[in-house]
Amino acid sequence: LTGRDPSKAKAKKRSDFDEGKFDILVLSDAGATGANLQGRATWLVEHDQPQTYRTQKQRRARLVRGGQAYTSPDIHSLAAQHPWEEQNRNRLERKRALHELLFEGQDETHDETGLAGRIRQHLRARTSAA
Predict the structure, then answer these.
(1) What letter does residue 72 receive in the DSSP assignment?
(2) Under 8 Å between Cβ of 109 and 117
(3) What pTM, to 2 d.p., does this model score?
(4) Which pLDDT score is estimated for 66?
């Protein structure tokens, strides 16, 4: 399923997958946009690492969302033991942590004073780890 597929073809492939006509669905990032695969999908294998946390979150949201049939889909990322891949993994992890800190926490410190302190704390931890 790619971004080049016409909308009807995408819908047909998703429907065929949901109905069990085939068990493996290969998607590009563009093809995955808007796909709701939580009904049957139990695995996600990323054959390349995304460049941004937003892309990673979008990919994984195809399986992990409200109404999913499986409580814990398996998510695997394939990556080489290469300095560039390691830097990318570290960058994605920092972005994930910052995103959770800023947007997903149930913290009362989300006024500008508390938020600034949390950002400063996160950045200090990041620089001391480097």
Answers:
(1) S
(2) yes
(3) 0.62
(4) 66
